[in-house]
Write a structure and sequence with these properties.
With about 500 residues, the chain is an alpha+beta fold. Helices cover about 35% and strands about 25% of the residues. α11 packs antiparallel against α13 and α13 crosses α14 (about 415-425). The N and C termini lie far apart (about 60 Å). The structure holds adenosine-5'-diphosphate. Adenosine-5'-diphosphate binds near residues 265, 312 and 324.
């Protein structure tokens, strides 16, 4: 029996390959960064070939690091930065433009125009998404309209569109397979999450020929096999899911009502809502959690744009810390934030406020305030924003959240987690393996390739490294949250 599963974790700033054993332990991990391209203010691009070359290098190196061979790998699972788009030539495989990244705002005016035409309700009803440049459709339209000759080639069926998973599958199979999975398709704004089909009406609105589209498959199935000329062996690609959905799977949130929060660059709270889509206008998006065993699970998602990025700002902008983990050390030098609140609305605010014009503020400063208070308040801002999204989730679903599973880089911060637990009045669990995104992709692959027989078997792997329980009473919580809401109100509509 082959011993390991390889997870490809293609993120916004780096390409990673992680090799897991059957028990979910990390055996090898390699990470390669690649350049971020900012052609103009608010525009973000990646070179698709840099994504591919760093990814393939990471995979090969991860295997070399343990002295392994491809004979040891039972399958490959892919998880990826979501919404980012690549358009390439079907014959040559060459991209016709850089990848337009999820963060890119170049289509903001176009999306506003569609909103003004009253299309928001239609889009929400079909896709579960908000009419925002964050999602893929307007980015693909931009490429077809702005790259010379693209529209003609598209009409002739000579182009392929894909999110990053499709781009990697295409290259790994040497152009044999043009496919994506339900989770990635559900972020394009072209996929009807009710009927599980690409949507003709949306394709017409965005003027995208259907010949560009990949075939959509369940998240756990055999997508194809790596071409031996690429990796040196024929390995099944058995699992594919967007990063946040993969993390939900990696946290074993298999049942409705179970949820996780990822504290990464941004924060993403996802709740499994079962096999029926629930579309709300509350500011949460509805998305496909995964397709597995002939069924689809849906999730509600609350997105916070700036989470750990606020800690990066303390490091790179304010220069008050040298590394992200220093933040906890310095914050502990004071007993509390001394009444200071930081609202890190650097790119506006996402859920529940959705205000693109909000801007960051620091309030409550007195003569006694020092830098430790501001560092502590910045850590606390990650917890406050998460509390806002949980409140929204509870109000939208009527489900009371009883405990929270966490992951992502900033979940290593114990001060954050204890403040979060106090603020929510519930316990928090940090799993042994916080690489839940990659783990989720490995599990999806393992189910398709027979490494695991069921999600029940996978659940046995889940180990909790730390449980944190609340220590404050509800009066404390209410007072804190009231002050936070007041601070947020001062940051809104700052134009
Ligand atoms: P992503 O996958 O979005 O790139 P990660 O999950 O790797 O993000 O998390 C990285 C983020 O976590 C960074 O923004 C960093 O500032 C933050 N971070 C990492 N370690 C800590 C820590 N100990 N305390 C607070 N924030 C941290």
């Amino acid at each position: 029996m082959r011993k390991y599963i390889m997870a490809i974790d293609q993120g916004t700033t780096s390409s990673r390959a992680i090799i897991f054993d059957k028990d979910g332990n990390i055996v090898s991990l390699v990470q390669r960064e690649f350049p971020q391209i900012f052609p103009r203010e608010g525009w973000v691009e990646h070179d698709p070939m840099a994504i591919w070359s760093t990814q393939i290098a990471a995979c090969t190196e991860a295997l070399m690091k343990i002295g392994g061979s491809w004979e040891d790998i039972s399958g490959i699972g892919i998880t990826n930065q979501r919404e980012t788009v690549v358009v390439w030539d079907r014959k040559t495989g060459a991209p016709i433009y850089n990848a337009i990244v999820w963060q890119c705002r170049r289509t903001a005016d176009y999306c506003r125009e569609l909103k003004n035409q009253g299309l928001e309700e239609l889009v929400r009803g079909k896709t579960g998404l908000l009419l925002d440049p964050y999602f893929s459709a307007s980015k693909v339209a931009w490429i077809l309209d702005n790259v010379e000759g693209a529209r003609e080639k598209a009409e002739l069926g000579e182009l392929c569109f894909g999110t990053i998973d499709s781009w990697l599958i295409w290259n790994l199979t040497d152009g044999e397979v043009h496919a994506t999975d339900y989770t990635n398709a559900s972020r394009t704004m072209l996929f009807n999450i009710n009927t599980l089909q690409w949507d003709e009406e949306l394709l017409n609105i965005f003027n995208i020929p259907s010949s560009l589209l990949p075939c959509v498959k369940p998240s756990s199935c055999i997508f194809g096999y790596t071409d031996a000329s690429i990796l040196g062996a024929k390995i099944p690609i058995g699992g594919v899911a967007g990063d946040q959905q993969a993390a939900l799977f990696g946290q074993c949130c298999f049942n409705p009502g179970e949820l996780k929060n990822t504290y990464g660059t941004g924060a993403f709270l996802l709740m499994n809502i079962g096999e029926q889509p629930k579309i709300t206008d509350s500011g949460l998006v509805t998305t496909i959690a995964w397709g597995l065993d002939g069924k689809v699970n849906y999730a509600l998602e609350g997105s916070v744009f700036v989470c750990g990025a606020a800690i990066q700002w303390l490091r790179d902008g304010m220069r008050v810390i040298e590394s992200a983990s220093d933040s906890e050390y310095y914050a502990k030098k004071v007993p509390d934030s001394g009444g200071v609140l930081v609202v890190p609305a650097f790119q506006g605010l996402g859920a529940p406020y959705w205000d693109p014009y909000a801007r960051g503020i620091i309030v409550g400063i007195t003569r006694a305030t020092n830098k430790y208070h501001i560092i502590r308040a910045t850590i606390e801002s990650m917890a406050y924003q998460t509390s806002d999204v949980i409140e929204l989730m509870e109000n939208s679903t009527g489900i009371k959240v009883e405990s929270l599973a966490v992951d992502g880089g900033a979940s290593a911060n114990d001060l954050l987690l204890s403040f979060q637990s106090d603020l929510l009045g519930i316990s928090i669990q940090r799993p042994e393996c916080i690489e839940t995104t990659a783990l989720g992709a490995a599990y999806l692959c393992g189910l398709a390739t027979g490494v695991y027989s069921s999600t029940e078997e996978i659940k046995k792997n889940r180990l909790i490294a730390k449980t944190i329980s609340p220590e404050k009473d509800s009066a404390w919580r209410e007072e804190k949250l009231a002050m936070w809401k007041k601070a947020v109100s001062r940051s809104l509509n700052w134009n």
